[in-house]
Amino acid sequence: MLIIDGKKVSLDLKNELKASVESCKAITGKVPGLTIIIVGQDPASQAYVRNKAKTCKEIGMISSLIEMPAETTQELLLQTIHELNNDPAVHGILVQQPLPEHIDEFTVTLAINPSKDVDGLHPENLGRLVMGDLDKCFISCTPYGIMELLQRYTIETKGKHCVIVGRSNIVGKPMANLMLQKLGSANCTVTICHSATNNLPFHTRQADILIVAVGKAQLITADMVKPGAVVIDVGNNRIEDPAAKSGYRMVGDVDFDAVSSVASAMTPVPGGVGPMTIAMLLKNTLLSFQRFNGL
Ligand code: GUN
Q1: Residues 150 and 268 reside in one and the same domain
Q2: Which structural domain range is residue 43 located in?
Q3: Who contacts 208 (Cβ-Cβ below 8 Å, separation ≥6)?
Q4: Which of 37, 58, 97, 101 counts the highest number of beta carbons within 10 A?
């Protein structure tokens, strides 16, 4: 069984991006800038965004983190986004989700200038993706990272049956539309399963490529996987583990140990899809800079 090493690929990618940032700087005298907004104190979200901002700096980009209290009004958040939309030093804007309940996520997403929407969540970007206009849109970072892994591991996709479990706007829907595109690294027959799917194991067993993004620890067991399938695990779940020093450990949506005896290739958790998401965020920020500067 081949382990698809997202940690290693993301390091390669970060080195490539660092070199590109240097050459952008040599040509324009400027570097790409990413601003991340977080509203509230959720510790997991705070850890994510700090990691994103830190990695950005490591490759020579400018990153800033705007931390707003949980009581922030939607109006103030929209005003902050408006200012960033008009700031020429900011090429990427990311508003970390989830947002507090009194703030409407869709209204916030619509407020971001689509040319700076490095999360690929704005309907203009998601719409262009669905229509195959990939050169002019931003692809949301997790599906984009999965495409990069499939390409770098030369996993054959043409004509294969790709089954996606999960229909979120940030992973499942863009992932399905990417795998559907008539591209070398896609061109699949695609099935999307979700919480109302009848007989989930029947569908997952049809998959040549199984991509799981539902946030349910170890949902996918060995009997749900076709022998020889490629399994991509987007899950990142904390489960209790008395043997661990912290009392918990991170697992994916796939029972890794059991499924590894059936699959031909798999992403581990941690060290699979997770590190790729950050790397693709940086790639999108660089892409935005290049578009703004006509490079
Ligand atoms: N929350 C968890 N992952 C993400 C992400 O990729 N983007 C945003 N905006 N929020 C998230």
Answers
A1: yes
A2: 29-118
A3: 160, 161, 162, 226, 228, 229, 230
A4: 37
